[in-house]
């Protein structure tokens, strides 16, 4: 007998009149807002302009949703195109089914378009938004809880999730809450990336690559626990192979990038402040003008500046009388010594 478990919602949608309010969709929306909020804070800290992250997200989010759905439909095509299935269901995103691999890949394409339009280096933008993206994933995974999906093997552990739905062949019972495991893992990845970025000043896309590698490491073992239908290759689920392949690519990128482009970008957005807070080109121009005005108000300073601009003129002391007296004395002594030598000769 189960002593404790995590209960699943009795339903994943509430109706506000004719308008359906779906828990899955709310989790996705909240995750997007968190990603943009945190990404904006990190972007400004790197020297970027406020609002740039949101402007680029306008491109990245729709691309990500399309890519995530395409990956899910292609890799689980039997759910939509096999006998007895309705292919129209492939467009029902609110019912669940977004592949993170497709979402990140297509979202990166959208972000690249937005970054190009803003004149922003894509690697720097990716580094800024990486922790926010993985936090969005942590929040989005709770949408699977509302839909009673993506759980693991049966268990009687106190933190097991109770499945009550019988839709799509589900068997009621208590199972490993793999959605919860992945959510907690994603929070840990976000903290890891934030710490590593501060400690090692990661740049040129390495913070984003660290997020990808760390997420894939966790996704591999979490995916291994899941019991939902999936394609298998050599005994492993397709997503296991995808996680392994992407993990190796991310690690390779970190190693090569650190060798070829060490350090981090000094300027991440044209016209904005640099990462260390120094003023941009306009600030330097204003500073130079202020210095010129100050010099004009001080006659002595103006005179020194004029002398400095005269070719061949140095900043030697104005009173050279002492030096002249020394030279005259030396000449007189030389004449005297010459006369004495002549007498002796």
TrEMBL record:
InterPro entries: Lgt. Pfam families: LGT (PF01790). Residues 300-316 have a biased composition (Basic and acidic residues). Pathway: Protein modification; lipoprotein biosynthesis (diacylglyceryl transfer). A 1,2-diacyl-sn-glycero-3-phospho-(1'-sn-glycerol) binds at residue 141. It comes from the Bacteria. PROSITE patterns: LGT. Its main location: membrane. The chain crosses the membrane at residues 21-40, 52-74, 94-113, 125-143, 179-196, 208-226, 238-256. Its EC number is 2.5.1.145. Residues 272-345 are annotated as: Disordered. It is a multi-pass membrane protein. Catalyzes the transfer of the diacylglyceryl group from phosphatidylglycerol to the sulfhydryl group of the N-terminal cysteine of a prolipoprotein, the first step in the formation of mature lipoproteins. Belongs to the Lgt family. This is Phosphatidylglycerol--prolipoprotein diacylglyceryl transferase. It comes from Streptomyces salinarius. The lineage of its organism: Bacteria, Bacillati, Actinomycetota, Actinomycetes, Kitasatosporales. The gene is lgt.
């Amino acid at each position: 007998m189960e002593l404790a478990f995590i209960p699943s919602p009795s339903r994943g949608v509430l109706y506000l009149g004719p308008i359906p309010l779906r828990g899955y969709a709310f989790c996705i929306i909240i995750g997007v807002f968190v990603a943009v909020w945190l990404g904006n804070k990190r972007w400004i800290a790197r020297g970027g302009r406020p609002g740039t992250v949101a402007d680029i997200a306008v491109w990245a989010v729709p691309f990500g949703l399309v890519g995530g759905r395409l990956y899910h439909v292609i890799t689980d095509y039997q759910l939509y195109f096999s006998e007895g299935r309705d292919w129209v269901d492939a467009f029902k995103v609110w019912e669940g089914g977004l592949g993170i691999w497709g979402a990140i890949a297509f979202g990166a394409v959208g972000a690249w378009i937005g970054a190009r339009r803003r004149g922003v280096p894509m690697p720097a933008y990716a580094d800024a938004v990486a922790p926010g993206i993985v936090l969005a994933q942590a929040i989005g995974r709770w949408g699977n809880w509302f839909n009673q999906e993506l759980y693991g093997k049966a268990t009687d552990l106190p933190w097991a999730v109770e499945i009550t739905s019988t839709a799509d062949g589900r068997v009621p019972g208590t199972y490993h809450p793999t959605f919860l495991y992945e959510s907690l893992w994603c929070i840990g990845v976000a903290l890891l990336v934030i710490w590593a970025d501060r400690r090692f000043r990661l740049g040129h896309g390495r913070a984003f690559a660290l997020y990808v590698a760390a997420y894939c490491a966790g996704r591999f073992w979490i995916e291994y626990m899941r019991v939902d239908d999936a394609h298998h290759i050599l005994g492993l689920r397709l997503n296991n192979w995808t996680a392994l392949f992407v993990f190796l690519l991310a690690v390779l990128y970190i190693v090569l990038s650190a060798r070829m482009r060490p350090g981090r970008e000094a300027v991440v957005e044209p016209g904005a402040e640099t990462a260390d807070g120094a003023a941009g080109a306009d600030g330097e121009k204003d500073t130079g003008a202020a210095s010129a005005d100050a010099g004009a108000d001080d006659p002595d300073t103006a005179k020194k500046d004029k002398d400095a601009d005269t070719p061949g003129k140095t900043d030697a002391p104005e009173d050279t009388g002492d030096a002249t007296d020394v030279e005259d004395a030396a000449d007189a002594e030389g004449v005297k010594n010459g006369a004495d030598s002549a007498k002796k000769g």
